[in-house]
Amino acid sequence: MLANRRPVEGESEAPSMTAADHEDIVSFSILYHKAKTMAAEIKSMKEYHQNLQDATEEVGMILEDDGILLSMSDCFVPCSEEEATAFLEQEQETSGQKISDKQGEYDQVKEELTVLKARIKSKFGDHVNLDDGTELP
After folding, report:
1. How many CA atoms lie within 13 A of 90 on its CB side?
2. Could you report how far apart the first and last alpha carbons of the chain are, in Å?
3. Whether the model pTM is above 0.85
4. Structure-model confidence comparison of residues 15 and 104, the more confident one
């Protein structure tokens, strides 16, 4: 706890911590974990979106009329090139919208983190370690 910590020679004493300060630090911790989780989700969603784009390109290269099998849950369903392309384009649109929505949420969380970090750092300076040192994307 900061109140029990003794300053090292040449270091200024840390200000006392109030309940509001403690709440800010806890909120920062929760939001930081949420931001890291959201960043991983966005990365995964972008990979899925890229896979859909790749699949759409691959469908266009298939020369056989009955060569397309669309994966639906645990089975594969034969379909035409037009059906596969329409399905993939719809999935890309849905995926793109989900990425956009999640990115918006992520940006809001990062903004809240910036405000909280500035508030905490202005009072405690380097006496409190808020994050693990890695930059959020």
Report:
1. 6
2. 30
3. no
4. 104
